[in-house]
Amino acid sequence: MASQQQRDIRKWLMKPHDKDKGNGNAVKPAQSSPNKTEQKPESKPEMTTQRGQESSGRRKTSKYFAADKQEPKDEKEVEELPLKRKTQSSGEKSVKLPPSKKVHKVDESEDDDDFVMPNKKSNYVDVTPSKKLKSSTGRGVAQKSVNDDEGESDDDDGIKDADSLKSGGRSHSRGRGGRGASTNPSGGRGRGGGRGFMNFDRKDPPHKGEKEVPEGAPDCLAGLTFVISGTLDSLEREEAEDLIKRHGGRVTGSVSKKTNYLLCDEDIEGRKSSKAKELGTPFLSEDGLFDMIRASKGTKGSSQNESKESVEEAVSVTKKGPKKAELKGNSLPRDVAHKSSTETLEPTKLKEQAVGESLLSWTEKYRPKSPTDIVGNQSVVNQLHNWLKTWHAQFLEGGNKGKGKKQNDPNAKKAVLLSGTPGIGKTTSAKLVAQMLGFQAIEVNASDSRGKADAKIYRGIGGSNANCIKELVSNEALGVDMDRSKHPKTVLIMDEVDGMSAGDRGGVADLIASIKISKVPIICICNDRYSQKLKSLLNYCLLLNFRKPTKQQMAKRLMQVAKAEGLQANEIALEELAERVNGDMRMAINQLQYMSLSMSIIKYDDVRQRLLNSAKDEDISPFTAVDKLFGFGGGKLRMDERIDLSMSDPDLVPLIVQENYINYRPCSVSKDDDGLKRMRLVARAAESIADGDIINVQIRRNRQWQLSQISSLSSCIIPAALMHGQRETLEPGERNFNRFGGWLGKNSTTGKNLRLLENLHVHLLASRESNLGRETLRLEYFPVILKHLTDPLRLLPKDEAVEKVVQFMTYYSITQEDYDTVVELSKFQGHANPLDGIASTVKAALTRAYKEENKSRMVRSADLVPLPGIKKTSKKRIVAAVEPSDDALGEENGDLLAEKEEESFSDTDELGNADKKLQDELQSLKSKGIDVEMEIKDIAHSSAKKTPAGRGRGGSTSGERKPGGRGRGGSGSTEKAGGKRKR
Amino acid sequence: MLWVDKYRPKTLDQVIVHQDIALNLKKLVAEQDCPHLLFYGPSGSGKKTLIMALLRQIFGPSAAKGKVENRAWKIDVGTRSIDLELTTVSSTNHVELCPSDVGFQDRYIVQEIIKEMAKNRPIDTKGKRGYKVLVLYEVDKLSREAQHSLRRTMEKYSSYCRLILCCNSSSKVTEAIRSRCLNVRINSPTDEQIVKVLEFIGKKEGLQVPSGFAARIADKSQRSLRRAILLFETCRVQQYPFTVNQAIPPMDWEEYISEIASDVMREQSPKRLFQVRGKLYELLTNCIPPEIILKRLLYELLRKLDEELKHEICHWAAYYEHRMHMGQKAIFHLEAFVAKFMSIYKAFLIATFG
């Protein structure tokens, strides 16, 4: 603990310097630096005090740090800083006037104590530059803990907000609607939260855009925490947020005791304002904010008064006294000596190190050195750690005890699959964990060929990488039997398993095989766990999912890096960076390095501008795209953004739009008591969607792909522009999410029903009693046929009725499937089922009678007509692939297979001579003439049943039909032959 | 057996309703050769019946004994080959088919089948080279391309085969085709004719048909003879002996559409629109063609609508129907129509009643 303590101290002693340096830069070399040496002792005492309190303060809030473990690392980086700092920037470093400092100290310690920082203002306002500098050091440190704390509370508040909003509050929070995704780097909260926010209605600012937005000193709001509530006078919420962030302030979602100001122009009695009153947080109007910003730029004299006032106000409100601060101030000197001694020791050594490392890219340089360094996902890393630790015990020794045990243990997976988006440290953590447990990691990634192992022995193991893996995986036995302590254990890391491509034929299967026989642990890594390729692999792996770290976590780490590299960056800028890269740590660091080439101070605006263009392409799900288009922010998206959104999936997005546009209450309609305006917008949107359909036809049918933008314009963007606003539910009990487009399913059902109808049609035609079109059949014959099929069953005595119905069915060659079709297609939602009122015994009797009738009758021509459903489906599939047609149906894969099989058989039938086959059949059936005749008929009849098989009953009939193993093939040929005969 | 089929006239002589046309047709084919024919007229007026009777007149009873086939075509189009399948009814002398069933690739069918027929030309009993007849149904639903290719082949192979085209509306058949055919317009039978037929059937079946009942059915049938007979039979199944005031059950889908119409009239809101969408889907999945839905919906709406709106609503119905043909996803257009109607009607209600 002692050494720990010491390290802590050192760390905190260092920190100020970074800060100093950073802000010193900003302040500018205007001050010469005569007193560099002299200054140090001065700053130190103060720093140390700060440290004392800080650390306690920190403890208080540091539940989100893995504090102890993390610190060594922190320290290390901190150590690197000063030397650079010193070499580069000694000049700028510090120009402080002792007296001012004192004042300042007081402020600082106060911050640290309770994280309320009204004094910041005084710092910059009455400001000599040196003071400013100081203040920000204080802030930087305090900020950090605020940060983490805030991050968490933000999330909570976000959710609470959502609730309160639902109940009608109209305040705002960051996660809502369209912006949701971009403001929330923490993937964890996801849609749920975001959606909740769309449930309320916020008015537009009354004087939108009428005021001039002031420009102020870049960090004039540094250290201040704002909460925005209600509608502002002229700024949109996002604009205000942006403004504050740009000036170094912080915006959080809900009021806490760390909040400095509640920014609102009207007291709307919401949750935030009541909380603020409770905590005594001062209210700030938009004009007040502008004044604060202007003041930083404007004449100091005038602004001074004002700001002083505000300071007083703030102080009086917060009531946390200078007394405390003074107390702390007194304790300063103690640690000073200590600190200076530690610091002087190290510079030279560190310098060398720094030079050596400068060639490395930062991602390598700052790659975590221990598992605890990994940003976020600690629990996953721990799981991995435990898994790897117990691996040998479980699978090598445990295997000896008996296999039964292995099966029972749910955790007993021999391999682990890490999944997660790129750049969040999967490979790194795998390596680190392995390293920590003393495993030797062997990494195989996409750059190696990973095809199926070549089983041929003569090639040796050298030829193929996969063979090496096999070798590696199975050869551990020796080591296990011998002394394992000496033998280095190995672990195989299969990186990028979802990238197994054409070159890696059979790769996954081989990997599974390897896992089964493996004597070493295997860690597989992939980006997309749900990839089709990996489906089979999932069963053999313990699945660990890496999440994106929160922006606070990332910002913290980035701050360390920035410090270590002598970059000056403020927290907010780094958070913005973290947010922009969408959780990709590697990319964040790369960006940071890139920016470091051109600038040494990184500000919010820089990050914003730079990354606006180079923003990482997110994978937008169609739902998110629709959310964004239709959210409140939908009206403010740029055209190219809208096109991007609607093009993210040009097939699905329009369907989801079409399904959901009715649900939105357009915010462009202000006063709409009778809903007329909304109805008009709906009509226009509907027409536009229909336009989109027409254009789509042109695109697909005539391959006019240049029209695709217009298509997305009319099918998504125009409806969204008309209808965007708040989503509301139309049906009780419906969840307020966008539904999936219903068209696909309905179209598929329509297609299926059409096919069934066609079967019936063919049967009716084949009966030669009627000559009718399919449409006529449905529209006009159906009611009558249905009456004939059901009414007698309901009205007449059982036997008579059954006889009558069966007679009718026989006459028109209506099969039982057709019967079902007729009933099914006559059902309407909200209407009585046509079969209602028919006793089940009657139905059973009908079935029996029909079968009986079937047996005794000869082949009907209707049975011999191959039904369109059988081949058609597969054909349509091809058609659909080439050019999605009206009847692109959603058949099951299984059906397709069955049909393929069928097809190939019937092809051979056509080629081979059917007669011979018929002979074979006859012999194999070993039956007499009549029997054979019957058999043929039955089979033929069951071929008529194939259509139902085509719609989902699979090959259930094929098995019973032919025990002889050739199944369908045989029956197909019989059918053909039978047909020939008849003709 | 359904009465519709049972009492369908088999020969031109048996025809009750369009006797004059039957007579003309008989004369036409008497000279051993006949031009291409285009039958058009509303459904239920007897086009198919006449065509079948005509075929029988030309080729004798063998024409009635066609066999139903599900034929597959493999068509080579440069880079790929297309497989198509269609149900046909064919005898030695004629082929009936409905090419529009295959959707937008109907033109391949049209080209292929005609070539195929031209290949083996039948020889009649007297050793004279005869011709085959190709009967195409629903020509108005053929795509433009198919109609164009039809035009070419009609002339090229005119010595081998005759075309009999059948459609509801001749306006959707291109001018070029119409001018190559002898157009035969089949009118809907008048109410009196329908009553006559119904009474004829009643007599044959030995039923007591109260006077006025047949007239009511005729009235309900919208001058479609087929529907009249089917209704007649439905009534028979439902209740016999007939009474004059017996309820004539509506078609299931018509009933459903009229429900939609009254829904729409009662409330105009997004919520209602959403419910209507569900019902429209229901109709579509039950294989009711979207054009029919739109037409029927318009009909139902017009019955309830104020005079001054009728014209406008008709205009929009026509507008969306046309667009529906150009598009692919019928529901979008149906919904657009309903939404349009709602917005117009709502505005009207507010303007009128405040």
From TrEMBL, chain A:
Report residue spans for region: Disordered: 1-218, 297-345, 900-983
Give UniProt keywords alphabetically: ATP-binding, DNA replication, Nucleotide-binding, Nucleus
Q: Where is the composition biased (Gly residues)?
A: 187-196
Per the database record, which ranges form the BRCT domain?
216-297
Q: Where in the cell is it found?
A: Nucleus
**Which residues lie in Basic and acidic residues bias regions?**
7-22, 66-83, 200-214, 335-345, 928-940
Task: Provide ranges: composition bias, Acidic residues.
Answer: 148-158, 900-912
Coiled-coil boundaries: none
What molecular function does GO assign, one term?
ATP binding
Bias-annotated ranges (Polar residues): 46-55
What are the record's GO terms for cellular component?
A: DNA replication factor C complex; nucleus
What InterPro entries does the record point to?
Answer: AAA+_ATPase (IPR003593), ATPase_AAA_core (IPR003959), BRCT_dom (IPR001357), BRCT_dom_sf (IPR036420), DNA_pol3_clamp-load_cplx_C (IPR008921), DNA_replication_fac_RFC1_C (IPR013725), P-loop_NTPase (IPR027417), RFC1 (IPR012178)
- In Gene Ontology terms, what is a biological process of this protein? DNA replication
**Source organism's superkingdom?**
Eukaryota
Predominant location of this chain?
Answer: nucleus
- Subunit note: Heterotetramer of subunits RFC2, RFC3, RFC4 and RFC5 that can form a complex with RFC1.
Please give the family membership noted in the entry. Belongs to the activator 1 large subunit family.
Protein's name according to its UniProt entry = Replication factor C subunit 1
Q: Which organism is it from?
A: Erythroxylum novogranatense
UniProtKB/TrEMBL annotation, chain B:
Sorted keywords for this record are:
DNA replication, Nucleus
GO CC, any one term: DNA replication factor C complex
Similarity field:
Belongs to the activator 1 small subunits family.
**InterPro entries documented for this protein:** AAA+_ATPase (IPR003593), DNA_pol3_clamp-load_cplx_C (IPR008921), DNA_Rep/Repair_Clamp_Loader (IPR050238), P-loop_NTPase (IPR027417)
Ranges of residues in domain AAA+ ATPase = 33-192
Matching CDD domains: AAA
Has UniProt tagged this entry with the keyword Glycoprotein? no
Q: Which GO terms describe its biological process?
A: DNA repair; DNA strand elongation involved in DNA replication
What is its subcellular localisation?
Answer: Nucleus
What GO molecular function terms would the record report? Answer: DNA binding; DNA clamp loader activity
Q: How does it assemble?
A: Heterotetramer of subunits RFC2, RFC3, RFC4 and RFC5 that can form a complex with RFC1.
What does the UniProt record say this protein does?
Answer: May be involved in DNA replication and thus regulate cell proliferation.
Protein name stated in the entry: AAA+ ATPase domain-containing protein
